[in-house]
Amino acid sequence: MTESPTDPMIGRLIDGRYQVRSRIARGGMATVYLATDLRLERRVAIKIMHGHLADDNAFRSRFIQEARSAARLAHPNVVNVFDQGQDADIAYLVMEHLPGITLRDLLKDYGRLTPEQTMDILEAVLSGLAAAHKAGIVHRDVKPENVLLADDGRIKIGDFGLARAVNNNTATGQALLGTVAYLSPELVTRGIADARSDIYALGIMTYEMLTGEQPYVGEAPMQVAYQHANDTVPMPSLVAPGVPLELDELVLWATARDPEERPRDARVMLDQLLEVEKLVRPSDTAMQATMVLPRGAAAASADAETQILGRAPLATATLAPPVAEDEEPDNVTKLAETARKRRGRGYWWFALVIFLAAAAGGAGWYFGVGPGSEIQVPSLTSASPEDASAQLEALGLVTAPGTAYSTEIEAGLVVGTDPGDGARVPKGSTVTINVSQGPQPITLPALAGLTPDAAASAITDALAVPGTVDEVFSNSVEEGLVISASRDSDGGDVSQGGDAFEGSTINYAVSLGDVTDVTGLSLDDAVDTLADQGLEGQAGEETYSETVPEGDVISAAPAGSGPIREGSVITLTVSRGPEPVEVPDVIGQAWSEAKGVLEAAGFRLDYNVTADLLPGLFTVTKVSPDVGTSAPRGSTVKVNFSA
C-alpha cells in the first residue's frame, strides 16, 4: 500500500527514536508504518493506534495488551515485538519488519495450494500458536491476513491485538471480535473463546489453503456466523479432488462444532500433523526447507516453471517420486494396503455425508417449523431492562434478572444476556438479563514512593489506566519517585492506594528532587545555579540585612503558589547590607549618658577607656561621623571627651 501524500505521520520522529518512512498497511484499530530505529540503526514496523481510538480506554488497554501478549513470546514463528509506548497524542508498538507477503496475498495470486505447501505453512503456524498456548495466550484472530511469508522463507504469525489469557474466556459485548469467516461456533453463540477456538480458525484456514475458497459464504456476516454455529465443515476433497484423506480428517477434527471434540491446543494438532506428513509427504522431499518467493517472481520469468514453495514446482508438487526398483516387497505391500484403507474410508465418509444431509433436511423441518423449533435470542445491549423483558417475553421466553460490570454500557442499561444474543434456545427457556452496574470497583495499591514504571504497572494491573505524569521539585521525596497520585475523574487522592473503578485514569506526580539552596550566593551565581535545574531566577525585593553582605541572596521562593516544575520562576530577595541609622546628638552630654545613647543606636564605639572609670566627669566634645549624618548600623563612631 502506498502512503497518502498528506499522511502527517510520514517523516515524523516518534519518541525521539523511530523515524517514520512509509505506510505499510491500515486496519480497523491501527496503521502500520515502516520506520527506522535510529538508536539501533535497523528497520522496524511501527503500529500506531488510530487517533479517534487513542482516547478510548478500552481500545488503549487492548492495544497495550497486544504488546504485552506478543512480548511474552519468543519463538521463530511469532512476529517479535520490541517496544511499546506513547508519544504525545499517539500510542504505538514496535515490531520486527518482515519484507514479504501475507498468506492472503499468496492465496489471491495462486488460488489453492498443494497439500505439501499447505502442510509447510500449517506446521509453521501451529509451532507459533503452540508457543502462545503454552504461555497461556489465545490469539483470537487466526486468519491468512495474520500469517506473514517473508522473502527469506520464514513463516510467522502476528497481530495479537485480540489476544487474551486462556482462562479469561468471557467476551461480554465483544462476542464477534475477529473475522467472521473464521469464528468458532462457541464465539458466535456464547461469546466464549479458548485455545480450541484458535484451532477451529486454523482448520478453516487449512480448508481455504487446500480448496482456494472458504467453506461458508453469505451476503451478510450474520449469515456466515449462522453457518459456523449450525453447519459442519465439509471435507476439502469434495471441492478439491486429490486432497489426501488424512488432511480431510485433520480439517474435520479441527473444525468440530463441539470444542470438546477438537484438539485441545496447537501442540496436540501439531503432533498429529507431523504424523500425517509421514504418510502424505514423499520422503525425498521432506528435507528441503519451505521458501516463499516474493510476489511477482513468477511473472518475471514467463518461461520458467512457476514455483511458490521450495518443495517442488507448482505443476509437479503433488506427484510422488517413483518407487525404487530394489524397494522391499513389504514396503510395497504396506503402501498398497494404506491406499486400500484410504479408499474404504473415503466410501464410508461419502455414505456418512449422504446420511447426514438427509438427517439435516429432516432436522431442519423439525427445528425450523416443527415442534422442536427454537428461538434466537435478540441483541438487547443498551436496552432498558423493561424493554428487554418485554421483547423476550413476546418471543415466548422467561426472563430472570442479573447484573454485570461494564466500562462501556451506562449503569441501569442491559449489558447482555445469558445465553448471549444470537443463541438459539427452546421456547419457554429462561434468559438472564444482565444489567450494567457501571465500571467494576477496584482497589489501587499504594503508589507514593514507587518509580514511574512501577506505578504505571501497578495501575494497569489493577485494571485502571495510567494518566498524566507531573514532574515537580520536592524537598521531601527522593528524585525519580512518585510523590502523589489522584483520580482524574474527581481529583481524589490515591497516593497511599484507595478506591477507584475499572478503566479509571490515574494521574501522578514524580519528584525532580530538591531545589538547590542559593541563599548567601551572589545574585548572578544564584540565577546560574537555578538555570542548571531548569528554573528561572529573578531578582525581587532588596532589603537590609546585618548578616548577609550587600548584593547576596537573603532568600528564594516560587513566584506563585502550587508545585515547582521545570520552568517555574523563583523570586530572589537580595541584601542591601546593614540598615543605615542617624548618629545621635550627644555633644555636651556626660559620658555616663552619651555611651548608652550611641550603643542603643547600634554603633560600635572608639574612645579612651579611661572615661569608663569616672563617666560622670567626662563630657563628649566631638563624634565622628558627625552628629546628624547616617552610617550603617554596626559601624564604628569615634568619641572625643573633655574632663
TrEMBL record:
The chain crosses the membrane at residues 347-368. Gene3D superfamilies: 3.30.10.20, Phosphorylase Kinase, domain 1 (3.30.200.20), Transferase(Phosphotransferase) domain 1 (1.10.510.10). One of its GO terms (molecular function) is ATP binding. SMART domains: PASTA (SM00740), S_TKc (SM00220). Keywords: ATP-binding, Kinase, Membrane, Nucleotide-binding, Serine/threonine-protein kinase, Transferase, Transmembrane, Transmembrane helix. Its EC number is 2.7.11.1. Residues 18-274 form the Protein kinase domain. Signal peptide: none annotated. It is an enzyme of class 2 (transferase). GO terms for biological process: negative regulation of fatty acid biosynthetic process. It catalyses: L-seryl-[protein] + ATP = O-phospho-L-seryl-[protein] + ADP + H(+); L-threonyl-[protein] + ATP = O-phospho-L-threonyl-[protein] + ADP + H(+). It comes from the Bacteria. Residues 372-437, 509-576, 577-643 form the PASTA domain. NCBIfam families: PknB_PASTA_kin. PANTHER family: MITOGEN-ACTIVATED PROTEIN KINASE KINASE KINASE 20-RELATED, SERINE_THREONINE-PROTEIN KINASE YBDM-RELATED. This is non-specific serine/threonine protein kinase. It comes from Cryobacterium arcticum. The lineage of its organism: Bacteria, Bacillati, Actinomycetota, Actinomycetes, Micrococcales. The gene is pknB.
